[in-house]
Amino acid sequence: xxxxxxxxxxxxxxxxxxxxxxxxxxxxxxxxxxxxxxxxxxxxxxxxxxxxxxxxxxxxxxxxxxxxxxxxxxxxxxxxxxxxxxxxxxxxxxxxxxxxxxxxxxxxxxxxxxxxxxxxxxxxxxxxxxxxxxxxxxxxxxxxxxxxxxxxxxxxxxxxxxxxxxxxxxxxxxxxxxxxxxxxxxxxxxxxxxxxxxxxxxxxxxxxxxxxxxxxxxxxxxxxxxxxxxxxxxxxxxxxxxxxxxxxxxxxxxxxxxxxxxxxxxxxxxxxx
Length: 273
Ligand code: PAF
Hints:
six-stranded parallel sheet; three-stranded antiparallel sheet; alpha/beta
């Protein structure tokens, strides 16, 4: 595995690649969720590139940029054992200059839900993902469905800017008890780890209601809020795959989203129905 730190090294590596290239952008602290994306890329492509870059522009003032979990040695080992071809680990100075044009995510889809409490977050995500896609020129890029709004906005960017990469949405990976894997789970103490299960359970409750025939979004949101007690709920929302809010579940075209704070840790989860 090649560890690549500079743009020139990355370009030189990319020029050597023939055939399909799979790319997994990450902020490190790799867990089984990331590993599932890596394995899928390894299976589907001739070359696999992973990036580890804690992107400053997607963190708001006061967020956990400085304390975001860093596991550099472990990340390198995980990538080595997984068998990827190149690991791109740039510095912020490599990725950004003081004077550069930017990109703004469409406000009607990026300043709601995650973007409501984190205004500007998705501008930073799109900015770095555009740079990373341009640098790595992947045929396929792999993103988890857990960050559903991010995934939608990236697909939208790729479509509207006519990028050639195919975005591959990948299933959420969960612990045995249902907790969706997230790098931020390491912030949870033992009690909070148990409380965090309210998120996936609220989605299970909604699933049972849908199986029983319930299609009304406000009724589903009510049972979910109940199931989320006593957590501090930031939002429960049901949208279609274009991230428009809906009042009736459309099977095959709906996403149920939940965000709640467990202690000081903000967790998200969702279910594609
Ligand atoms: O999902 C993430 O880890 C990040 O938002 C991403 C896509 C790597 C961009 O920094």
